[in-house]
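Researcher: Please translate sequence to structure tokens.
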Amino acid sequence: MNKDNIMEVKGLHKRFTSKGVTVKAVTDVSFSVKPGETIGIVGESGCGKTTLGRCIVRAYNASEGEVFYRTKGGEELDFLKADKKKMKEIRKEIQMIFQDPYSSLDPRMTVLDIIKEPLKANFPKMPKDEMDQRAKAMAEKVGLNPMYLMRYPHAFSGGQRQRIGIARALVIEPQIIVCDEAVSALDVSIQAQVINLLRDLQRELKLTYLFISHDLSVVEHISDKVGVMYLGRMVELADSYELTTRSLHPYTKSLISAIPIADPKVAKESSRIVLEGDVPSPLNPPSGCRFRTRCPYANERCAAEVPEWREVSSGHYVACHHFEKCQ
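Model: Translation complete:
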């Protein structure tokens, strides 16, 4: 494991099998993350990005691959092979913020109890007064009024509920936060507030984010580097600015062309790249390159060979036989 990284994902696969049918949800995904960095994972619905995030926190057990993690104590280990005792220790350091702020909170618990729940689970011997104090301090940090902590989730708006979810994830002082579509269920104005809050908390608490979203404009705003997924595979990975200004994969170019532009003159001059056809079924993905059925550059080689995951410039990776044509 590179000493500069806090996490390294290598060759991660996840397959779901039911009644003899196998779905390859994630196939051979690799990337690394440095402390204090945000890596965005973007792609359309069904591409495997949420499954990837859940494999990393071991909500799902990966079928193959390795997830190396550097703990607060400096220990390097493969999280996927950790035993139950070690896994419980590591889970204190890797937390998740969920997509739906309505269904991810127990409606029968007060907000204070919701925020305290990770403390009860991970530090059962902690005095109740200390738990209350830590929960209230974290609620204030995310912008919640401590006066309202004895209320129930239904009394709060969507943005406030997501702040509750953020406070719950941060109260045990983790190192890594997996944000699974953390702002997709919110209004645009509220999205901006929550994203700014996440960035402020990252600087203050020295957090590392894995930010999963289908919205490239949101991912671009918050991420240091971005990985693009298509049908279970990562097709491109680069610095956020590099990806949006010099993308090398035709699928990435299509996603970038769909980002709304505020300036009407610039928007009128820009051209949208519309992909033909539908996303193939993950039950029966195309041979070779999975994007070839919608790619304008596809040829016989694309059907016969899986594109090699290669570094074409410093920190810029792509899986495409014809990436030169996209420059």
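Researcher: Any highlights?
Model: The radius of gyration is 21 Å.
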